[in-house]
Task: inverse folding
């Protein structure tokens, strides 16, 4: 029996990764798309990216800052990168699904920042959107190393607006309310989706 798959998503700086860790802490398996990409950038994807974007790898790994300078704000280059990376991520996702099914988990989290952007909403059983007010989002993102207004705006331009994500969500976690409130929201969701032993009504 396949576990219930909950899609966890949110725009840049909304607190999705922190929320995903809360599910992990509760014992729920999480497929982390970003971590998968990071691993690919240190392994299988390196020669493919170097061929497509010469000079963007160093010492056998992808230099993310150099790669970003080649693709951020450049639609054709971004599509070329996605054509390399997305099939590899999809393969790892399928392996994750098979593994958690074999291990007998009741629920699992698909941590997918581009759930809507890649039209994958129908691949999960319910959607959780992590959100925060725009000013909180901007403050969080602009404190990141190597980030600036131009890069932030370019990333936002490629993401489905937060207001639309919230409208399409089954559940919303407001990360601006603090860690304790987020943990309580996660606990409530686990209470909703964790199967209970029920009597046979036949």
Result:
């Amino acid at each position: 029996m396949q576990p219930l798959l909950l899609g966890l998503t949110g725009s840049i700086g909304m607190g999705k990764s922190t929320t995903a860790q809360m599910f992990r802490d509760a014992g729920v398996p999480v497929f982390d798309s970003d971590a998968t990409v990071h691993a690919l950038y240190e392994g299988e994807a390196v020669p493919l990216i170097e061929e497509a974007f010469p000079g963007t790898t160093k010492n056998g790994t992808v230099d993310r800052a150099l790669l970003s300078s080649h693709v951020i704000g450049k639609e054709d280059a971004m599509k070329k990168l996605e054509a390399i990376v997305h099939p590899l991520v999809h393969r790892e996702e399928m392996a994750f699904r098979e593994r958690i099914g074999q291990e007998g988990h009741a629920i699992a989290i698909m941590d997918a920042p581009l759930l809507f952007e890649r039209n994958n909403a129908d691949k999960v059983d319910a959607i959780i959107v992590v959100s925060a007010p725009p000013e909180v989002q901007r403050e969080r993102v602009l404190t990141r190393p190597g980030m600036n207004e131009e890069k932030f705006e370019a990333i936002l331009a490629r993401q489905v607006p937060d207001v639309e994500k919230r409208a399409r969500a089954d559940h919303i976690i407001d990360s601006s309310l603090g860690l304790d409130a987020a943990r309580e929201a996660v606990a409530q969701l686990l209470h909703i989706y964790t199967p209970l032993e029920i009597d046979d009504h036949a």
Summary: The mean pLDDT is 91. The beta strands are 4-9, 30-32, 57-58, 61-62, 107-111, 126-131, 171-174.
